[in-house]
Design goal:
The chain is of the alpha/beta class. It has helices at residues 32-41, 56-64, 84-99, 118-129, 147-150, 190-193, 201-204, 223-234, and strands at 6-11, 26-27, 30-31, 46-52, 105-108, 136-141, 152-155, 158-161, 180-189, 207-211. The N and C termini lie far apart (41 Å).
């Protein structure tokens, strides 16, 4: 099953409550959403880059940085309870209708996770192309702690391991590697995304992982997240390739 052409969708609604206005809050001299746009523009395998938004200021900012905003997202897909899969299905259907063109895959870049690089995007597309039976590629990273040893739950007032049988591992080297979905990128093939399985994609799809370093697994929902990302960038701990030094 072909992977290209790839439609890149950057979803950015205007009604964030955790950090109001976060998508256009300035980070390293650019609005937050601009980092995902600039990253996408450096990935040669992307056919089209669009922003799905309900907000006029976000739309204006996106266009200023070179992304297309070919439609305004309907209100029912812009509220707090709107799921991401319906937003992407709408974006794919509308863009195909406007362009009179079929896109074989859709790449989701969440603007609140700006730590992925153009090379990560290219690797994801290559991975999908070389594994024809997979439904998608998901960005993951290895957290600083391993839940086999460090995660517990409470049961009847007492602590017990989250993962039963985790105590059988006596050495750190023997514990299986565990990854977390970090929202850096999601690449889905068209037919899977438009199918009924997409809503429960983790359980019902066949996905491969694309690992990126945990250090770059930034996700900004609140002011504390934003300030942490700002500190990492200003200190040079992380450097975005689209920002000239």
């Amino acid at each position: 099953m072909p992977v290209k052409p790839v439609l890149c969708v950057i979803p950015a609604r205007g009604g964030s409550k955790g950090l109001p206005g976060k998508n256009i809050r300035e980070l390293m001299g650019h609005p937050l959403i601009a980092h995902s746009i600039m990253c996408a523009k450096m990935a040669p395998s992307l056919e089209r880059i669009i922003v799905s938004t309900d907000d006029a200021e976000i739309a204006s900012t996106a266009r200023r940085y070179g992304a297309d905003v070919p439609f305004i997202r309907p209100g029912e897909l812009a509220g707090d309870t709107a799921g991401m899969i319906p937003v992407l299905q709408h974006a794919l259907a509308e863009t195909e209708k406007i362009d009179d063109k079929r896109y074989e895959s859709l790449l989701l870049l969440d603007p609140t996770s700006p730590g992925r690089f153009p090379d990560d995007i290219e690797k994801a597309i290559t991975l999908a192309a070389s594994n024809g039976d997979t439904d998608g590629i998901v960005g993951v990273s290895e957290p600083e702690f391993n839940p086999y040893w460090h995660c517990v739950v409470e049961e009847k007032g007492m602590m017990r391991p989250l993962i039963e049988g985790a105590g059988r591992f006596a050495r750190r080297q023997d514990v299986p590697r565990v990854f977390r979905i970090n929202a850096s990128l999601y690449l889905w093939k068209r037919d899977f995304l438009l199918s009924g399985k997409a809503i429960k994609w983790i359980e019902e799809g066949k996905h491969l992982m694309l690992e990126i370093p945990e250090q770059r697994a930034i996700h900004i929902d609140h002011l504390e997240d934003f300030e942490k990302a700002k500190l990492f960038l200003e200190s040079g701990t992380i450097s975005f390739p689209w920002i000239k030094k």
